[in-house]
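Board notes (copied after class):
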Amino acid sequence: MKTNPPLTLYGTTIEAGEHALININVARLPSRTQIDTPVYVFRAVEKGSTLLLLAGMHGNETNGIEIVRQLIAKQLLFPKRGTVIAIPLLNVYGFLNFSRDVPDGKDINRSFPGSAEGSLASRLAHVVSKEILPHIDLGVDFHTGGGQINNYSQIRCMLGVGRNEEYARAFAPPFIIDAKVREKSFREHAQSLGKPILVYEGGESMRLNRAPVKEGMRGTLRLMRHLGMIDEEGIKKMKKAETAPPSIVLAKTRWLRAKISGVFRAFVDSGIFVEKGRFIGSITDPFGEMHYDIPAPESGYIVAINHQPVVTQGDALFHIGNPAL
């Protein structure tokens, strides 16, 4: 058995078999209140993979925060081999202000690799880049649909890069989407360093959705089992985590947008397959004089639905995905 070597994180050394909470100071409020980002570290005695679980990069995406919180609270992150680094809430500012961004309006996930002397978003990105990324082998970045968009549980990654597809299939979400990286995103920067990152999307911002929270937790345990970090006894600690139906791989997706403004109603649920031409929603005016049925432009799976009842021309309504050929 190879013993885990010591891990030094933000000036704190965690030995094999130890667990620690490290508070990384990122800034302070105008009131002088210090803002810390708590980082939980769970280390096995035996050497193995180092897995990062990161949530709350966007402060209003509460489902991801809840996934990591529950995994910690239920004591499901104690590995038999390797190390888990868990950050339930990176963007404390956004969380307190019900916002995706930090107070200067910038998006942390468009600020990597960041700078110690840059904007607040850039400084937060810099902390993750310098203090966390060098120590991990791979990670899961937990997100939630933006605005009123309700995402069906999915993993996004570039399937043709490294072992991304292997890890995505091990997570076993309902959908795996072949998604390009975005410029200056956490995933792009990590990938440039050879650190694969799976992006998990599930549910709706500012709303706790039970199903995607449970799916995210189960998927994490399945990934840990695949990495050899836990055994069958460990995965049995969570109901329905042991097995999952094979994921549906979506080679391409597209947004169906509103052709007119009005009151929007969806006739279908996320996750289902629809045939081309099926009416999947409608837009009406508030006065009962206008009614427009929305046909599916092509056959595919409903990946996400906008739950905003009042929409403007051009708004995203349905995210539709086509399986890989």
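Comment from the instructor: The longest strand covers residues 19-28. The chain is about 20% helix and 35% strand.
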